[in-house]
Specification:
Elements: E1 7-9, E2 12-17, E3 20-21, H1 23-37, E4 41-46, H2 50-65, E5 69-75, H3 78-88, E6 92-96, E7 105-111, H4 120-132, E8 146-148, H5 152-161, H6 168-174, E9 177-181, H7 187-197, E10 201-205, H8 225-233, E11 238-242, E12 249-252, H9 262-275, E13 280-283, H10 288-296, E14 301-304, H11 308-318, E15 322-325, E16 329-331, H12 341-353, H13 359-363, E17 370-377, H14 382-392, E18 401-403, E19 408-412, E20 415-421, E21 427-434, H15 437-452
Parallel strand pairs: 2-3, 4-5, 4-6, 5-8, 9-10, 9-11, 13-14, 13-15
Antiparallel strand pairs: 1-2, 2-7, 6-7, 11-12, 15-16, 17-21, 18-19, 19-20, 20-21
Helix pairs in contact: 1-2, 1-4, 5-7, 6-12, 7-12, 9-10, 9-12
Length: 453
C-alpha cells in the first residue's frame, strides 16, 4: 500500500503499518488536530495492537508540538475515549485503533469536542491543515504536556451500570454464565468487568490486552468458532464477542451457534422501546430485524448512510432514542453518541433476563431473515458497473426501488440488496437480505459475479 492510498474518511485514517501508515503520518495528524482545535486538551487512547505504542508516541509528539495538553488513557475501548472527551471537556479525542481490521493494520479515529466522530466538514478542515502543513508549531517552552490518566475503563463500567434502562436486579437473579471473547483487544478488561458487576459468572477466553489476535478479529460467525466451543465446554448460557476496540458486540447461543451481529441491535431496540417511545435510526446496511422492532413499537424508523458519523448525525436530527449499525454497534444517545459493546452487552442481558428463555429461544422471538454479507477487492470500474447494475437488476428482482445516498440499495418485495464501497478498506461490500436462504444465496452470488468478473 502506497502512502497515497492511505484510507481516509470521517472514521479517520487507516492503513497497514509500514506500508501506508507510519509514525511521521501519525505525528502530522496530531499536529493537524491540535492546530484545528487551537488550544486545550485532547484525549488519546489506543487498542492493544503492538504498533499502537509507536503510533501513540508519534501522536503525543504531534499534539505537544502545537501546544496541546494530552490526556493519555492507555489501552481502552473506543467508546471510553468518547466518554472521556465529554467528561473532561476536551477539545477533541483520538483513538489509535483499526477496529475490526487484521493486526497489521492500524488507524487514527478522530472525535470532536462532543465525543463523536468528526463531521465531514471538520474532517475536511483537518485534512486541509494536514495536506498544507500549516501547523501552529510552538517553541519548546510552550509544548503541551502529556498527562497519564488511568482508570477510565472502570469509570466507563460505572457509568454504564448507572443507566436506569438496565434491569440490574433481574440480571443478577438470572445468575447467567457467559463466555467472553475479547480477541485480546481493548475490551479484554472492560467487558468481563461489566458482566461481573452485574452478577454474571464470566469465563474469559482471549482476554489479555496484548494484541495477539488468535483468530480474525471481526466478530462475524466464521470467526466465533472458538467462542462457540468454549460455550459448549463450560455449559454457559451464551457467549459474547467484541472487536479489538470494543464498539461492536456479537452473540453466540447456548449451543455455541453464532446468532449474527444483526441481532445485537435488534435486542437493544426492543429493550429501549419497551421503556421509552421515540424514533430509531439505523443505516442502510442494517437488517430489517432491527427495523421491524421499531415499527412494531409504533416509532418512526429512519435510514442513514453507512458509518457511525452518519448514523449519529441523523439520530441527533431526529432526536432518536436508540440507533446503531447492524454490525453489532449499538448507540444509546442518552449515555453517549457512539457504538459501545458494553452498553450493548447490558441491553442483551436485560432483554434476556426478563424472560425465562434460553438464548436460542429468545432469538426465535425476532423476525427471521437470511442475510448474506460478501466483499471483494475494489475494481477500477466499480462506479460504472454500479450505474449499469441499476438498470440490469430489473432482470433479477421484481419492481425494484432505489436509494443512492450511499452506494446503491435496491429494495424489492421480500428483501433488499446493498452494494457500496467500503469507508475503511480498499474493497466493496455486498449485502443481500431476504426471507429465504436460497434466494439470498442466489442473489448474492449473482451480484458478486456482476461486480467481480
Amino acid at each position: 500500500m502506497a502512502k497515497e492510498t492511505l484510507i481516509k474518511s470521517t472514521s479517520g485514517i487507516r492503513g497497514i503499518v509500514g506500508h501506508g501508515l507510519d509514525a511521521s503520518i501519525a505525528a502530522d495528524y496530531g499536529k493537524a488536530i491540535g492546530t484545528f482545535v487551537k488550544k486545550g486538551k485532547v484525549v488519546v487512547g489506543r487498542d492493544s495492537r503492538p504498533s499502537g505504542k509507536m503510533l501513540q508516541k508519534a501522536v503525543f509528539n504531534g499534539l505537544s508540538s502545537v501546544g496541546i495538553e494530552v490526556i493519555s488513557l492507555g489501552i481502552v475501548p473506543t467508546p471510553t475515549v468518547e466518554i472521556a472527551v465529554k467528561v473532561l471537556k476536551a477539545k477533541a479525542g483520538i483513538c489509535i485503533t483499526a477496529s475490526h481490521n487484521p493486526g497489521e493494520w492500524n488507524a487514527l479515529k478522530f472525535f470532536n469536542q462532543k465525543g463523536e466522530f468528526v463531521t465531514s466538514d471538520e474532517f475536511e478542515q483537518i485534512e486541509k491543515i494536514y495536506n498544507d502543513k500549516t501547523f501552529a508549531l510552538k517553541p519548546g517552552k510552550k509544548f503541551g504536556k502529556v498527562k497519564q490518566q488511568p482508570g477510565w475503563v472502570e469509570k466507563h463500567v460505572r457509568k454504564t451500570l448507572a443507566l436506569k434502562v438496565i434491569d440490574k436486579g433481574t440480571i443478577k437473579k438470572r445468575k447467567f454464565k457467559v463466555v467472553v471473547d475479547a480477541i485480546n483487544g481493548a475490551g479484554s478488561i472492560a467487558l468481563p468487568l461489566l458482566l461481573a458487576k452485574l452478577g454474571v459468572q464470566v469465563t474469559k477466553i482471549n482476554c489479555k490486552p496484548n494484541g495477539d489476535f488468535v483468530h480474525e478479529p471481526e466478530p462475524i460467525p466464521q470467526n466465533l468458532l472458538q467462542l462457540g466451543q468454549a460455550v459448549r465446554k463450560h455449559k454457559a448460557d451464551f457467549g459474547l464477542a467484541c472487536d479489538p476496540d470494543a464498539d461492536r458486540l456479537a452473540i453466540v447461543d447456548e449451543n455455541g451457534i453464532p446468532l449474527g451481529e444483526e441481532l445485537t441491535l435488534a435486542i437493544a431496540v426492543r429493550e429501549i422501546l419497551r421503556q421509552k417511545k421515540g424514533p430509531v435510526v439505523i443505516n442502510l446496511s442494517t437488517s430489517k430485524v432491527a427495523g421491524d422492532e421499531a415499527i412494531k413499537a409504533g416509532g418512526p424508523l429512519y435510514y442513514s448512510k453507512v458509518g457511525e458519523s452518519s448514523v449519529v448525525q441523523l439520530m441527533r436530527e431526529q432526536r432518536a432514542v436508540i440507533g446503531g449499525e447492524g454490525n453489532g454497534g449499538v448507540i444509546y444517545p442518552e449515555f453517549h453518541s457512539g457504538r459501545d459493546a458494553l452498553v450493548a452487552a447490558a441491553f442483551v442481558l436485560s432483554g434476556l433476563g426478563r424472560h425465562n428463555l434460553k438464548m436460542s429461544q429468545f432469538a426465535e422471538s425476532f423476525n427471521k431473515y437470511y442475510t448474506i454479507k460478501a466483499k471483494a477487492t475494489l475494481l477500477s470500474d466499480f462506479s460504472e458497473r454500479l450505474k449499469r447494475f441499476e438498470v440490469d437488476v430489473k432482470t433479477l428482482v421484481p419492481q425494484p426501488t432505489f436509494n443512492n445516498i450511499d452506494g446503491l440499495r435496491v429494495d424489492f418485495s421480500g428483501g433488499w440488496i446493498l452494494i457500496r464501497q467500503s469507508n475503511t478498506e480498499p474493497i466493496f461490500r455486498v449485502m443481500v437480505e431476504t426471507n429465504k436462504q436460497s434466494l439470498s444465496e442466489n442473489l448474492s452470488n449473482k451480484v458478486m459475479e456482476y461486480f467481480s468478473g
